[in-house]
Write a structure and sequence with these properties.
Number of helices: 9
Number of domains: 1
Number of strands: 3
Structural class: mainly alpha
Order of helices and strands: HEEEHHHHHHHH
CATH class: Mainly Alpha
Strand content: 5-15%
Largest sheet: 3 strands, antiparallel
CATH topology: Lysozyme
Length: 167
């Protein structure tokens, strides 16, 4: 199944926000745009290094066009990560669940998403209830719970319900 990119784009902007200047995210990392960790965006790293040398990192900003361009690139990377990790299973994964996995990959990256072996095993068995439980019973799931964010619960719900849930 295909990823619902329109829904995902809207969801990411809603949950991450669109912040065009550098700021600290809830984890204390420098971020900007639509949840972009400054250290992970090559286009921004060079600008950040110059700004940091001038002790002006807090002045670093991008425009909306740049933010949406980076968003599209990061969504592509997240889709690729899900393809790498779940490739042979994708024909059995509906659009809602596929999109939920891509949202996780957007936030975590390939290596961290690959670090969910029990969730991956549950998905391999087609046990979406266990997959959702493993999603919530993760460091990221617990962090979101501590922050009072329902984002991870939403992802788990979409994994559990599949086509019966948004998007």
């Amino acid at each position: 199944m295909a990823v619902n990119r329109d829904w995902l784009r809207t969801q990411l902007v809603k949950t991450e926000g669109l912040v065009l200047h550098v700021h600290r995210d809830p984890k204390g990392l420098w971020s900007l745009g639509i949840g972009f960790c400054v250290q992970h965006i090559p286009e921004i790293v060079a600008m950040a290094e110059v700004a940091e040398e001038q002790d002006r990192l807090a002045d670093l900003a991008i425009n909306e066009t740049q933010a949406y361009g980076i968003l599209e690139k990061k969504i592509g990377e997240a889709v690729h990560a899900v393809d790498v990790i779940f490739g042979r299973l994708l024909p059995r994964i509906d659009t809602v669940r596929h999109t939920a996995l891509v949202e996780m990959a957007y936030m975590l990256g390939l290596s961290e998403l690959a670090g969910f072996p029990l969730m991956r095993a549950a998905i391999d068995r087609g046990d979406w209830e266990d997959a959702a439980a493993e999603c919530l019973d993760s460091e990221e799931g617990r962090q979101h719970e501590e922050w009072g964010s329902d984002r991870w619960r939403g992802i788990a719900e979409r994994l559990r319900e599949g086509e019966g849930a948004e998007p």
